[in-house]
Design a protein that fits this description.
This protein is of the alpha/beta class. The chain folds into 2 domains: 128 residues, Alpha-Beta Complex (Aspartate Aminotransferase, domain 1); 246 residues, Aspartate Aminotransferase, domain 2, CATH 3.40.640. Helix content is 41%, strand content 14%. It has 12 helices and 12 strands. The strands form 3 sheets. A 7-stranded mixed β-sheet has the order 2-8-7-6-5-3-4, with helices on both faces. Helix 10 crosses helix 12.
Length: 384
């Protein structure tokens, strides 16, 4: 039996997505910037995908900028907005548990002279709203808070963050911008950025059964942003370069299907997640670190190194992660687990199990059986 419980890393492309992608490769393969019919046909996929995404976000299609993925969307938002507002201040606020595609651009901005504040989180991974209030100041220009943590599944209080920033702006005549990394929330939660006060929001296609290399950034029409790529002026000059029509069309179809069935999909993911946590925590030496996101669970296995258990599960056809997939080639203790002050003995003994609507309770039962079989043996041979 093969069990894929690593859907927070990437998901399998579904047939409807594959079909529209093939159309753009076999039939409508023109350059969307070309003025002839082939170009017009290709451009229609881009316009249609923008309409689909903007419909689900309740924004204008012109406020959607396509990128090569969530990483580029985050880099564009952070670097582009920080540079656009630099004359207004040099202070950026983010959190201590952000994805590397937010953390590293922020560190790069810090090296360029910006001052960065990292908000602490509690044992559940939730940011301190009080600390946010304390840190906002006249020099603050940008706040970036993820919607859902990619390692433990914490849902951050984005609406409350937006309210705090809005109140501060109104009281102090400021224009602080709020960016949200919604890569792990998009397609699984209903987020209407303009309604709640989010000025920019990053999304990815391959987390919701779309293709890798597909992403988008919502940028409110009132927000200034400087490009980080310069060229032919595509995407209103914010993201130059010939659009990847195939990836964009695939992402659009994936978004359409994800939101069409969002309630059913979330229910299926939650049932699988809850079944795994309930069964796993009955096994000796397993603790649960999971947040409330429907598709991510974090479990710690006392006395077993995560890498050892990961490969032991792999041998049984079960695929999971030891943390963020973007960091998996550079093994290190998770900064997220440190931030929530997980017991030091469990920092290198934690795995992420992540789900999609196609996972089943039968897969959970098989996984639990394998864990009951493996753990006593692995613990027996673990070096103390």
């Amino acid at each position: 039996m093969e069990v894929y419980f690593d859907n927070a890393a990437t998901t399998k492309i579904i047939p409807q997505v594959r079909e529209i992608m093939l159309e753009t490769m076999d039939v409508d393969y023109g350059n969307p910037s070309s003025v002839h019919l082939k170009g017009v046909d290709a451009e229609k996929y881009i316009k249609d995908s923008k309409k689909i995404i903007s419909r689900e976000l309740k924004c204008d299609p012109n406020e959607i900028v396509f990128t090569s993925g969530g990483t580029e969307a985050n880099n564009l938002a952070l670097t582009g907005i920080a540079n656009a507002y630099r004359r207004s201040g040099n202070h950026i606020i983010t959190t201590s548990i952000e994805h590397a595609s937010v953390y590293n651009p922020v560190i790069n901005l810090e090296e360029q002279g910006f001052r960065v504040t990292f908000l602490p989180v509690d044992s559940n991974g939730v940011i301190s709203l009080e600390k946010l209030r304390e840190e906002l100041c006249d020099e603050t220009i940008l706040v970036s808070v993820m919607a859902v943590n990619n390692e433990i599944g914490t849902i951050e209080p984005i609406e409350e963050v937006a309210k705090i920033i809005k109140e501060y702006n109104e009281q102090n005549g400021k224009d602080i911008i709020l960016h949200v990394d919604a890569v792990q929330a998009f397609g699984k939660m209903k987020i209407y950025p303009k309604r709640i006060g989010v000025n920019a929001m990053s999304m990815s296609g391959h987390k919701i059964h779309g293709p890798k290399g597909s992403g988008a950034l919502f940028v409110d029409s009132k927000v200034k942003i400087k490009p980080i790529l310069f060229g032919g002026g595509q995407e209103k000059g914010i993201r130059s370069g010939t659009e990847n029509t195939t990836a964009i069309a695939g992402m659009g179809k994936a978004v359409e299907l994800a939101y069409k069935n969002i309630d059913d999909n979330v229910g299926k993911m939650l049932s699988v997640k809850n079944a795994l946590i309930t069964g796993a925590t009955k096994i000796e030496g397993i603790t649960d670190n999971s947040g409330d996101a429907p598709h991510i669970s974090s479990l710690s296995f006392e006395g077993v190194r995560s890498e050892v258990l990961l490969h032991a599960l792999e041998d049984k056809g079960i695929y999971v992660s030891s943390g963020s997939a973007c960091s998996s080639n550079h093994p290190a203790i998770s900064g997220v687990l440190k931030a929530i002050e997980l017991d030091s003995s469990l920092l290198d003994s934690t795995l992420r199990f992540s789900f999609c609507e196609f996972n089943t309770l039968e897969e959970v039962e098989y996984t639990l059986e394998v864990l009951r079989e493996l753990l006593p043996t692995l613990r027996k041979f673990t070096r103390r």
